[in-house]
Amino acid sequence: MLNILFVCLGNICRSPSAEAVMKKVVSDAQLNSKIFIDSAGILDYHEGEQADRRMQTHAVKRGYDLTSISRPVLPEDFTRFDYIVAMDEDNVSALKSFNVDSVLKNKIVKMTSFNGDSYNYNSVPDPYYGGPEGFELVLDLLEDACKNFLDHLVRNNPELK
Q1: Which residue among the candidates 38, 52, 88, 126 is catalytic per the annotation?
Q2: Pick the catalytic residue: 8, 38, 77, 146?
Q3: pLDDT in the model for residue 117
Q4: What pLDDT digit, counting tens, does each position of 59-68 carry?
Q5: For position 114, what pLDDT does the model report?
Q6: Cα separation of 80 and 66, whole Å?
Q7: For 2-160, CATH number?
Q8: Angle at alpha carbon of residue 105, lines to 114 and 16, rounded to 5°
Q9: Which of 11, 41, 81, 134 is deepest in the core (most CB within 10 A)?
Q10: Torsion 80-94-66-112 (CA) sign
Q11: Catalytic residue among 14, 38, 52, 144
Q12: Is 13 a catalytic residue?
């Protein structure tokens, strides 16, 4: 089984959305039994909370159910997960600051590295302090990147074919 962890700052907007979008993309490809998906936050400030209600509202309109409960990234996540997907450069830096073997740090990738030609963003912007358009943009970026990420996974992991 391939294990993927999506990470943002508090695990209440971007990473739970990435988790939900990727679960749908994986389900549509009938790969549920081969890919496990989770999300976590750099900070534990929202630990035990559901996703931000505004993010949930926008996600539901697109058919996504944000059911994950916020939790912080743990050192053991670096051994448990094959890919640790950060939403922005600050998340990448924070993940690289964990006291784990450098080989394990090679599992860290940035979500926007899977953007298609339609989006020219260096990060998935945090919508927390903005308006509705920010939540919609996050979903647009994640839908694009998750499809491309799954294509990447299938190309590079023969067990998914």
Answers
A1: 126
A2: 8
A3: 85
A4: 999 999 999 9
A5: 97
A6: 22
A7: 3.40.50.2300
A8: 50
A9: 11
A10: negative
A11: 14
A12: no
